[in-house]
Design brief:
- The chain is α+β, with helices and mostly antiparallel strands and 457 residues long.
- It has three domains: 244 residues, BirA Bifunctional Protein, domain 2 (2-Layer Sandwich), CATH 3.30.930.10; 63 residues, Herpes Virus-1; 92 residues, Rossmann fold, CATH 3.40.50.800.
- Helix content is 34%, strand content 28%.
- It contains 15 helices and 24 strands.
- The strands form seven sheets. A seven-stranded mixed beta sheet has the order 4-10-11-17-14-13-12, sandwiched between helices. A five-stranded mixed beta sheet has the order 21-20-22-23-24, sandwiched between helices. Strands 1-18-19 form a three-stranded antiparallel beta sheet.
- Helix 2 crosses helix 11 and helix 5 crosses helix 6.
- The longest helix is centred in the first third of the chain and has 20 residues.
- The two termini are 28 Å apart.
- Bound molecules: glycyl-adenosine-5'-phosphate.
Length: 457
C-alpha cells in the first residue's frame, strides 16, 4: 500500500477543512499568526494535556499541578531577568522596511553556519561581509542590530504611565517559582518535588512562521523539579530521557526525535537541551530541558525580600534548591502528532483514503456509530450511540454510503467504526471495523464498552 505524507500547506488546509485549526479572526481577514482550535483540534489538544498530566503529575511522586495567573507583579520579570534579557536581535531592511531576526537571516542564507554561537557584532559583520539578502526584496541594505524585548506589555487601570505597565507572561515557569513556598507549605512537600503547570504564554515574535509552530500566543506544559545542588545533573539527564519516552508514548517514533544540546545558554541555564521532531520543514524544538540552578529562586529572594530557603530537617541545614525544568509546547506537539499520523493511502487502483493514524487514546472521536440502512437501523443505532456517549466521545453518521462514512471517520482518526445492521436487531451483534487495518469483526453490542476501553488504554 502506498502512503503519502502531508506538506505544511496541505496540513493547514486539512486542519481547516476537518475542524482542527482555523485562522484566528478569519472573518476580519485574520490576525497574522494567530490560530483558533476547532472542535476536533481542541479535543486532540486536551488529550495531549491529559497524557502530560498522566505522565508527569499522576505517575511521578511528589508532583503537584498549579494554575497560576497569566498576569503577575512586574517585579517578577525584573527578578527573572526577562525585562533586561529576553530579547531577539532584530534589524530592518532599509529598502522594503521589513523586520528580521539577525540569526534567522544568517541561518536561512547558510544553514551550515550556527548563528546561535555568534555575538551581535559577529552577526552584523557576517551579514555585511556576505551581503546577506533580504528574503523579501532580495537587496542587502540593513540597519544595525537592536535588541527587541519579546514580552507583550499592557496597562493596568486607567492611567497610562510606566507605573501601571504589566506583562503577559512569556513563560509559565515563574508562576511555579513564585508559588514554590506556598506549595511546599500547603502540601508538606519535601525535596525533591515538582510543580507543573499548563497554560498560555505570549511572545512578541516578529518572525512567527510554520503554522502553529511559532506563534505569538501559545500553550506550554512546564514542569519544575526542585532538588538539592549535586542532584541536579542526574535529574537533568533523567528528564531529557523522560521527555523522549513521553513523546514515544504519544506515538512519535524514536527515529524522528533527537536531542539538541545547547552551546549558547539562556540567561538562567547551566545546561540545556531540546528534543526536536522532524517536521516537513526540518527539525524543530518541541521540548526543552534546562538546569536552571538556584538562579530563579535566588533572584526572587533578592527581589521580594522573602527567604526562598529550604530547611533540611535531617541534615539540619538551609539552602536554596536547584531547579530542573522540563518544558513542552502544546501547539507544537499537536502539530507533530498530526504530521506523524496524517497520510493519504492508496487502497486500490481506484481508491485512496486520508487517514489520521494517531494513537486511539489521542483520537478526538473514539467511535462512529453507523446504521447500515437509515430507515431500518436508525433507532437501534441511536440507542447504542446514546449509551456509548456516557463513556466516550463518539459520533453518529447516517449520511451517504457506508464506504463514504468509513472514509470520513478515517480522515479524522476515529479508531473504530461500528455498523448496526439486521444482525444487531436479530442477534444483538455489531460489526466493528478497525481504522488502520480496515479489518472487520463481529462483537456482541454489550461488549463494545470494554472493546473501546481496551483500544484506548
Ligand atoms: N520556561 C522555559 C521556556 O519557556 P522555551 O524553550 O523558550 O523555554 C518552551 O519554551 C517550549 O515552548 C518550547 O520547547 C516550545 O515547544 C514552546 N514554544 C516556545 N516559543 C514558542 C512559540 N513562539 N510558538 C509556539 N510554541 C513555542
Amino acid at each position: 500500500m502506498q502512503k503519502r505524507s502531508f506538506t505544511m500547506e496541505q496540513m493547514v488546509s486539512y486542519c481547516n477543512q476537518y475542524g482542527f485549526i482555523y485562522q484566528g479572526s478569519e472573518i476580519y481577514g485574520g490576525l497574522a499568526n494567530t490560530w483558533d482550535y476547532g472542535p476536533l483540534g481542541t479535543r486532540l489538544k486536551n488529550q495531549i494535556k491529559d497524557a502530560w498530566r498522566y505522565f508527569f503529575i499522576q505517575l511521578r511522586e511528589n508532583s503537584y499541578e498549579l494554575d497560576a495567573d497569566i498576569l503577575m507583579n512586574p517585579r517578577v520579570w525584573e527578578a527573572s531577568g526577562h525585562l533586561a534579557g529576553f530579547t531577539d536581535p532584530l534589524l530592518d531592511c532599509r529598502e522594503c522596511r521589513t523586520r528580521h531576526r539577525a540569526d534567522n537571516l544568517i541561518q536561512e542564507y547558510d544553514a551550515s553556519v550556527d548563528a546561535d554561537r555568534m555575538t551581535q557584532e559577529e552577526m552584523l559583520a557576517y551579514i555585511r561581509q556576505q551581503k546577506v539578502p533580504c528574503p523579501v526584496c532580495g537587496k542587502s541594505n540593513f540597519t544595525d542590530i537592536r535588541q527587541f524585548n519579546l514580552m507583550f506589555e499592557t496597562q493596568r487601570g486607567a492611567t497610562n504611565d510606566s507605573a501601571s505597565t504589566i506583562y503577559l507572561r512569556p513563560e509559565n515557569a515563574q508562576g511555579e517559582y513564585v508559588n514554590y513556598l506556598n506549595v511546599m507549605r500547603s502540601m508538606r512537600a519535601k525535596l525533591p518535588f515538582s510543580i507543573g503547570q499548563i497554560g498560555k504564554a505570549f511572545r512578541n515574535e516578529i518572525t512567527p512562521k510554520n503554522f502553529t509552530f511559532r506563534t505569538i500566543e501559545f500553550e506550554q506544559m512546564e514542569y519544575q523539579t526542585f532538588c538539592r545542588a549535586g542532584e541536579d545533573s542526574d535529574l537533568y539527564q533523567y528528564f531529557k530521557n523522560y521527555g523522549k519516552s513521553f513523546f514515544e508514548y504519544l506515538g512519535l517514533p524514536a527515529e524522528k526525535l533527537r536531542f539538541h544540546d545547547h552551546e549558547k545558554l539562556a540567561h538562567y541555564a547551566k545546561e540545556a537541551c531540546d528534543i526536536e521532531y522532524l517536521f516537513p520543514f526540518g527539525w524543530g524544538e518541541i521540548n526543552g530541558t534546562h538546569n536552571r540552578t538556584d538562579f530563579d529562586l535566588r533572584r526572587h529572594q533578592e527581589y521580594s525580600g522573602r527567604s526562598m530557603e529550604y530547611f533540611d530537617e535531617v541534615a539540619r541545614e538551609k539552602f536554596i534548591p536547584y531547579i530542573i525544568e522540563s518544558t513542552y509546547g502544546v501547539d507544537r506537539i499537536v502539530l507533530a502528532v498530526l504530521f506523524e499520523g496524517l497520510r493519504e493511502e492508496t487502497v486500490n487502483e481506484k481508491d485512496t483514503r486520508i487517514v489520521l493514524g494517531i494513537k486511539p487514546q489521542l483520537a478526538p472521536v473514539k467511535a462512529t456509530i453507523l446504521p447500515l440502512i437509515r430507515k431500518r437501523h436508525a433507532q437501534k443505532a441511536m440507542e447504542l450511540y446514546s449509551s456509548l456517549r456516557r463513556h466516550f466521545m463518539v459520533q453518529y453518521d447516517d449520511a451517504g454510503s457506508i464506504g463514504k462514512r468509513y472514509r470520513r471517520g478515517d480522515a479524522i482518526g476515529v479508531p473504530a467504526a461500528v455498523t448496526i445492521d439486521d444482525d444487531t436487531l436479530e442477534k444483538g451483534t455489531v460489526t466493528v471495523r478497525d481504522r488502520d487495518t480496515m479489518q472487520q469483526q463481529t462483537l456482541p453490542a454489550g461488549e463494545l464498552v470494554s472493546y473501546l476501553n481496551k483500544l484506548i488504554q
